[in-house]
Structure formats: C-alpha cells, structure tokens
C-alpha cells in the first residue's frame, strides 16, 4: 500500500488506499537543461498504470521539485478520481518570440556532443573557448512530451511510455 498518512483529505486517502498499490515519481532531465518534467504514476498490484499525472516545466521558469511533484500528483489524482483524461497538452510547435538565448559552459559533463542531441529544436549555436551559445525554444519540454504521443497532463489507464530524453 502507498504511504498516504500525510494526506489530510480522508476521501482522497481512502481512494488511494483502496485502489493504488504503489505511487511512483519520475523526474525527467536533460543533461544540459536540467529537469524538464515530473511524472507521477499510480500503479496497481500487477504493476499496471491506473493513472498518470505530468507536470511540464517551461524553460522560462525556475525549477521547483516540490511544486512539480505536487502538480503531477494532483493530476494523477484527478485522472483516478474522475476516471477520465483531462488537461490537454497544447500545441506549441513553433519557436516563439520568447526564445531563450543561453550560454552553457562545458563543465560538469555538459559538452557540445550532449548539446547536439537537442539541436533539432534550436536555432543556432556557436562554440567559444569557455563553452557555447544557443537559442532554444522554452517550450522544449512540452514538445518532448508531445513527441511521446501523450495528449493529456492527467491520464486515466494510460499506456506505458519511456520518458527518457
């Protein structure tokens, strides 16, 4: 049974204790950009996914692990409680005017080769002695989730998806 003793809402605690065998969180990261999104999955005793919630980070925002986990958890609860998908993921396929200009140093294992993995969604980059400059769509995490054929942030009985970037 999942640990639900911290939940204040008795109805929610009862719902989770009755249906959910395990609560699993995943933090999906890209080597250069850091955490892109959080995933919360409710599993039954057979390991099947009952509900999934996804919290997607815009790269324009700072990352807050607690907020991301809370949003993902809340969306998984919403799917389980209502027994339906909700919160469609919007289309944002174009690089907006708010495209980010960033400088990345080559320290801590972030090098040009790991950057080249995401160049398909960037405008350009140039190498210097200290690192490299790039322009990137701040909605890259949104695009990566959509690329996995996920249509909703709150999903009921979803298919398994490999979220690794």
Brief overview:
The chain has 165 residues and is an alpha+beta fold. 25% of the residues lie in helices and 32% in strands.
Structure, explained:
The chain is of the alpha+beta class and 165 residues long. The chain folds into 2 domains: 10-90 and 149-156, Double Stranded RNA Binding Domain; 100-136, no CATH class. The protein contains 4 helices and 8 strands; from the N terminus they run αβββαββαββαβ. It has helices spanning 10-19, 65-82, 112-116, 140-147; strands at 22-30, 34-43, 49-56, 86-88, 100-105, 122-127, 131-136, 152-156. The protein has a 5-stranded antiparallel β-sheet. Strands 5-7-6 form a 3-stranded antiparallel β-sheet, with no helix packed on it.
Keywords:
3-stranded antiparallel β-sheet, alpha+beta, 165 residues, 2 domains, 32% strand
Question: Any chance you could write out the topology, listing elements then pairs?
Answer:
Elements: H1 10-19, E1 22-30, E2 34-43, E3 49-56, H2 65-82, E4 86-88, E5 100-105, H3 112-116, E6 122-127, E7 131-136, H4 140-147, E8 152-156
Series of H and E elements: HEEEHEEHEEHE
For the largest sheet, list the strands in their spatial order.
Answer: 1-2-3-8-4
> What is the architecture of the largest domain at the second tier of CATH?
2-Layer Sandwich
Count of all domains = 2
Shape: elongated
At CATH level 3, the topology of the largest domain is Double Stranded RNA Binding Domain
Structural class: alpha+beta
Low-confidence stretches: none
Total E-strand runs: 8
Average pLDDT works out at 76
N-C termini distance: 30 Å
What share of the residues lie within helices? Answer: 10-25%
